[in-house]
TrEMBL record:
<dbReference type="InterPro" id="IPR036986">
    <property type="entry name" value="S4_RNA-bd_sf"/>
</dbReference>
<dbReference type="GO" id="GO:0003723">
    <property type="term" value="F:RNA binding"/>
</dbReference>
<dbReference type="Pfam" id="PF00849">
    <property type="entry name" value="PseudoU_synth_2"/>
</dbReference>
<dbReference type="GO" id="GO:0120159">
    <property type="term" value="F:rRNA pseudouridine synthase activity"/>
</dbReference>
<dbReference type="Pfam" id="PF01479">
    <property type="entry name" value="S4"/>
</dbReference>
<comment type="similarity">
    <text>Belongs to the pseudouridine synthase RsuA family.</text>
</comment>
<dbReference type="InterPro" id="IPR006145">
    <property type="entry name" value="PsdUridine_synth_RsuA/RluA"/>
</dbReference>
<dbReference type="GO" id="GO:0000455">
    <property type="term" value="P:enzyme-directed rRNA pseudouridine synthesis"/>
</dbReference>
<feature type="domain" description="RNA-binding S4">
    <location>
        <begin position="19"/>
        <end position="79"/>
    </location>
</feature>
<dbReference type="InterPro" id="IPR042092">
    <property type="entry name" value="PsdUridine_s_RsuA/RluB/E/F_cat"/>
</dbReference>
<dbReference type="InterPro" id="IPR000748">
    <property type="entry name" value="PsdUridine_synth_RsuA/RluB/E/F"/>
</dbReference>
<dbReference type="InterPro" id="IPR020103">
    <property type="entry name" value="PsdUridine_synth_cat_dom_sf"/>
</dbReference>
<protein>
    <recommendedName>
        <fullName>Pseudouridine synthase</fullName>
        <ecNumber>5.4.99.-</ecNumber>
    </recommendedName>
</protein>
<dbReference type="InterPro" id="IPR050343">
    <property type="entry name" value="RsuA_PseudoU_synthase"/>
</dbReference>
<keyword id="KW-0413">Isomerase</keyword>
<dbReference type="InterPro" id="IPR018496">
    <property type="entry name" value="PsdUridine_synth_RsuA/RluB_CS"/>
</dbReference>
<dbReference type="InterPro" id="IPR020094">
    <property type="entry name" value="TruA/RsuA/RluB/E/F_N"/>
</dbReference>
Length: 257
C-alpha cells in the first residue's frame, strides 16, 4: 500500500484538489462518512447546480455551492443572522445624522458587517432580520421569492369579517396598483378598535398601513411577528438573538437557497 505522503504527491500531480464531497457533508452535520456516501449515491447532492453521484468527487466549499435535497449546506459558516425586535421610534438603519435611535443602538458594535433585510417604518414594531450573508439578504428582500410576512395590526374603528374577506378575495387599489392580503383574521375588537392578524408577501413601504388607511381604518399600532419561517417569539423589544442552524436552513429553503 502506498505511503500517505506518496498518495498526496500523486493526487497533487493528478490535479486532485479540494475536499472529498462526503467529508464536506459529514463536516456539515449530515452524519457519518458512510451515511454521506449514501446521500451522494442516492442522487441527493448537487454541486454548482450539477448532480453528483460519484464517490470521491472533490469540491471547494469556499467557492462552490453545494446543495442536499435542494438546500445549500453550511460548513462552519462564519456568517451570522440575527432576529431583532424593533421598538417604536427606532429607525430601520444603522446610522442617523440626526442622532435618533437606530438598529446599531440595539446590536452595538459586535457585528460590524451586519445589515438589515428589509425595514419597518419609524412607528412600527417587531421582527427585523439582520445578516452579513449577502446572498441570503438578496433572496429574502427580492420580490421574486415572495417571503410571507405576518403582522398584528390595531385599527381605529370596528370592522367585520366581511372586510377581511374582501381584502383577501378582491384586494384594494392603491396608488401603485392592486394589492391583496394572503390572510386576514379578526383577533379582538371593541367599539373603538379592531385587532387583526394579516399575512402578505408584499414588501412595499408602509404597505399594511396603506391598505387599511385606504378603506378608512387607520392603523394605530403595527407589530411584525413573523418573516417566512422565523418568528418574533419571546424576543423583548430592543433585544435580539442569533438564529440557530436549523432556522437558517429553513430560511434558506424558503428563499430558494
Amino acid at each position: 500500500m502506498p505511503h500517505p505522503y506518496t498518495q498526496a504527491i500523486r493526487a497533487r500531480e493528478q490535479g486532485e484538489e479540494g475536499i472529498r464531497l462526503q467529508k464536506v457533508l459529514a463536516q456539515a452535520g449530515f452524519g457519518s462518512r458512510r451515511k454521506c456516501e449514501q446521500i451522494i449515491t442516492q442522487g441527493r447532492v448537487e454541486v454548482d447546480g450539477k448532480l453528483v453521484t460519484t464517490l470521491g468527487s472533490r469540491v471547494d466549499p469556499s467557492h462552490q455551492q453545494i446543495r442536499v435535497d435542494g438546500s445549500r449546506i453550511h460548513l462552519n459558516d462564519k456568517h451570522v443572522t440575527l432576529a431583532l425586535n424593533k421598538p417604536r421610534k427606532v429607525l430601520s438603519t444603522m446610522d442617523d445624522p440626526k442622532g435618533r435611535f437606530t438598529l446599531r443602538d440595539i446590536i452595538g458594535d459586535r457585528y460590524e458587517r451586519v445589515f438589515h433585510m428589509g425595514r419597518l417604518d419609524y412607528d412600527s414594531e417587531g421582527l427585523i432580520l439582520m445578516t452579513d450573508d449577502g446572498e441570503l439578504a438578496q433572496h429574502v428582500m427580492h420580490p421574486r421569492y415572495e417571503v410571507e410576512k405576518t403582522y398584528i395590526a390595531t385599527l381605529s374603528g370596528h370592522i367585520g369579517g366581511n372586510v377581511c374577506r374582501r381584502l383577501v378575495t378582491q384586494g384594494v387599489e392603491l396608488d401603485d396598483g392592486l394589492i391583496r392580503l394572503d390572510h386576514c383574521a379578526i383577533i379582538d375588537h371593541n367599539r373603538e378598535h379592531t385587532i387583526v392578524k394579516v399575512v402578505l408577501h408584499s414588501g412595499k413601504n408602509r404597505i399594511v398601513r396603506r391598505i387599511f388607511g385606504a378603506i378608512g381604518y387607520p392603523v394605530t399600532r403595527l407589530v411584525r411577528t413573523q418573516i417566512g419561517p422565523i418568528r418574533l417569539g419571546e424576543i423583548r423589544p430592543g433585544s435580539y438573538r442569533v438564529l440557530s442552524a436549523a432556522e437558517i436552513k429553513a430560511l434558506d429553503k424558503e428563499v430558494g437557497l
